[in-house]
């Protein structure tokens, strides 16, 4: 199966949207995850007019906006429920205005455990109640909840408006087998992120296939699930400036594309 290809603007942080769309068209990676932050062209402070203009530019550029990638941390104890929920809903409204079906959130607990899970469950259910039509919130395998078992433990208690992002690196780097992650995330999976690195501890981005992440096994797992979404490259050069430029990384297509 050939899934359509996307990339996150984390790999080209600060690049104007017109240049992002040109990069997408020139490489064939036609889906976008838009990183939402103050140093990006897309953030919750955009006016209605700015949002409309951004949407027009993206749509006329022939790309598909898949998600707004927020930095809301639903299990974090340092912020209150109201602040967390309001932040997620604001990003969901931005996703709606840009035509994206998803908004990404992180777990982000200081310490994993029952209290962190309870915060995440409570807040995700509250967020689900306030989501604009056509937008879902997706919890990523990341930070305090890196494995499928962690995400499934939370999502089994929340609204169906909440799904999962499988970032292939984090379950793998913490020792969860691909097949286990596959089975645990199966009821919730809406989006996947692909990347490659040298090892679980040396995580500078490498072109797909140049590292040790079991990508072939990952693609097989997606096929077994009947996954129908996009495969998105999250090129973390913002955090690893020594990595090659995103434009170079996009020259290497996933093996399933032939």
TrEMBL record:
**Single annotated GO MF:** isomerase activity
Gene3D superfamilies of this UniProt entry?
Divalent-metal-dependent TIM barrel enzymes
Residues annotated as transmembrane: none
Q: What's the source species' lineage?
A: Bacteria, Bacillati, Actinomycetota, Actinomycetes, Catenulisporales
Protein name per UniProt: Sugar phosphate isomerase/epimerase
Q: Does the keyword Coiled coil apply?
A: no
Domain Xylose isomerase-like TIM barrel, residue spans: 22-245
Q: Does Isomerase count among this protein's keywords?
A: yes
SUPFAM superfamilies xref list: Xylose isomerase-like
Q: What Pfam families does its record include?
A: AP_endonuc_2 (PF01261)
Q: Which UniProt keywords apply?
A: Isomerase
Domain of life assignment: Bacteria
């Amino acid at each position: 199966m050939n899934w359509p290809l996307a990339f996150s603007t984390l790999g080209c942080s600060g690049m104007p949207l017109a240049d992002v769309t040109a990069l997408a068209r020139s490489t064939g990676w036609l889906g976008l995850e838009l990183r939402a932050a103050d140093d990006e062209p897309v953030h919750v402070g955009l006016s209605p007019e700015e949002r409309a203009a951004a949407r027009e530019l993206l749509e006329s550029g022939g790309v598909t906006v898949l998600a707004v990638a927020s930095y809301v941390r639903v299990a974090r104890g340092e912020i209150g429920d109201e602040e967390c929920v309001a932040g997620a809903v604001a990003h969901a409204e931005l996703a709606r205005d840009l035509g994206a079906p998803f908004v990404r959130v992180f777990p982000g607990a200081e310490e994993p455990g029952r209290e962190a899970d309870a915060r995440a469950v409570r807040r995700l259910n509250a967020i689900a109640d306030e989501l604009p039509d056509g937008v879902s919130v997706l919890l990523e395998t990341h930070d305090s909840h890196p494995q499928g078992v962690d995400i499934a433990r939370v999502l089994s208690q929340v609204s169906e408006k909440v799904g999962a992002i499988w970032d292939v690196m984090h379950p793998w780097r913490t020792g969860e087998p691909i097949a286990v992650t596959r089975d645990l995330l199966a009821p919730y999976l809406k989006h996947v992120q692909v990347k490659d690195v040298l090892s679980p501890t040396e995580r500078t981005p490498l072109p797909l296939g140049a590292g040790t992440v079991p990508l072939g096994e990952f693609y097989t797992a997606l096929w077994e699930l009947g996954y129908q979404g996009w495969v998105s490259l999250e090129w973390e050069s913002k955090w690893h400036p020594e990595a090659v430029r995103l434009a170079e990384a996009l020259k290497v297509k996933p093996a399933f594309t032939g």
